[in-house]
Amino acid sequence: MATPPTVPYLQPDSLLGLLRDEQAPVVVVDVRDDDHAGGHIAGAIWLASRDFDAGMTSLARELVQRAADAGASDMNPLPVVVHCQFSQVRGPSCARALAAHPDIAACPTVQIAILKGGYSYFSRRYAPTDPDLFADDETDDDSCSA
Asked: pLDDT, tens digit, for every residue of 31-45?
């Protein structure tokens, strides 16, 4: 049995910096299930953890394409930040599965990370000062169909 890849945690301040920098490409993947309805990071790809296995190949291919479109390189990979509500179970599990996917594992231009503290911490900390980074409407995200 293969050892799952180690996926680093990204500090919330680092994600905030990437989201504020319009020149820095970043992809946020929200794997929350029904708890997604309470709001989300604007522009995030939503692929619920319950549907993750079914949609992972499609997501991996999309991420590889986005990295190519962004001009990502081995030295400057596209950051892909995965989170759930607290990034304790679903987020880390999905991030490790995504990092192990053959399309991602073979693509050094995509770098998977887990948002430390998850959506709960990130939204509590930054929604009051950066409300434009958040959305409540389900149409404001980039849902990934399985």
From this structure: 999 999 889 999 999
